[in-house]
Every structure is written in structure tokens, then in C-alpha cells.
Prior knowledge:
Elements (H helix, E strand, L loop, with lengths): L2 E4 L5 E6 L1 H15 L9 H18 L4 E6 L4 H7 L6 E10 H21 L7 H18 L4 H11 L12 H11 L3 H14 L5 H17 L19
Antiparallel strand pairs: 1-2, 2-4, 3-4
Helix pairs in contact: 1-2, 1-5, 2-4, 4-5, 4-7, 6-8
Amino acid sequence: MLAIQSTERLTGGRISGDYWDLDELINAIYEVIGDENRYYDYQGASHRILKVCLDLRKATQGECNIEFVANGIHKGIIKKKDTIAPDKNVNFSVEILWPELIFTALALNDFIDLYNEFIDMSPWNPHIATIRKFQSIVTECLKEHLPDEHFRVFMQLMVTKSPKYFRYATQYVDILNLEYLNLSIEERKANLGAFAIRLMVEDDEYIALKNEILATASVTKNEIHELPLQMKYPDRIDW
């Protein structure tokens, strides 16, 4: 079963599941996002989400964490069925920084709306159902760590109509990731809700950043998402 738990220092969310849980989510996201040319003005958000998918794929290949979880088999079942069976299943997991994980869950709303409009408007589409499950467990995990008022605001903003990330300056997610990493665990507890909301509203800091990037892009002729910031992530993250 796909699950998300906050890491010990509230640095991020740990996404876990068996191979098929993670594989189903990855394939659902690939289907709904499509290739990089499907939605040209969403390439920044698309590339960002696909990087998270890459982390999930690495997890399924055993490059991150492996956990053994109870599967419900016990001595009574083994005796009744006269068989031998393992009592634990293998789960894979990977940690994603909270701002990155929140952005991923939010930006998928835009791609679901686009998919419904141009590809398949059926309410029973299994790929969308898989992504909605992922979004729901992200928000349920967040709910455990946000004050009620912050969580209500977050949910109100989340259900407002897309698009939120049309030609979005996704470099802002890097800024928030690094700001968040520099906080103590107490500061993270106090400010996680504010970080979530900053990903949903274009505040003065975001507007200034986007204007700067657009000015550079007009000179270099790059797309907005192609201009990296001169910022470096730590070699090791204390989760």
C-alpha cells in the first residue's frame, strides 16, 4: 500500500510502498503528463515532477531504502493452509523534501485538468485515480503537522481552479527547498504551513525572481525553466 510519513526531522516526506505501488504511481504520472512537448507552457513543472518520478524509480531498484513490513500471514494461517509463506513483504521508500513534495502534489492538479480536457474526460480513469490517491496521502500527512487554520487555508487554495503553474518559475521551488533545509526542526514545525502556502500564491519574492529570470531569458533566448540558479544543495541531507 502506498504511504507517506514525515521524516524524523520533518525534512521531507518518506514515500513508501511495494514495487507495484510505486510502479503504478510512476506510470500514472507518465501517462497524465505525457511527453515533454504535450503541454509546452508546463515544461518546467513537468520536468520537476519527472525528477521525483526518477527518485521513485531509483527506490524500486533498491537504490534508496528497503523495509520489511508485516503482510498478515501468521502461524494460524500457515497451519490451516499447511503451507510455508513469508510473514513480511518488501517495501521500498525514498525521501523527498517537503517543499518539493508539496509542489509535486499541487502541480499534478494542472496536468489532471489538461488530461481531462484534451485526452480523457472519464471520471473513472485509473491513472487519475492513482494520482488522486497520492495527493490525498500527501495532504493527510501534512494535516498531522499543520495548525488547523493553516491546513484549512491550504486545502481551500488547493481546490481553487487550475492553472497554478502555467509558465511557472520552478527555480522558486529550489529556493524554498534550501530555505527549508536551513531551518531547525522547531522552525520547520512552525513554518511548514507557510511554505506550503508560498507554493500556491505568487508573493513578492516569487514575482521578483520570475521577473529576473524573464529578463535573463530574453537575452539568452532560453525557456524560463532552463535557467538554473547558482545554488547548491548539501551533499548529505539529515532527514
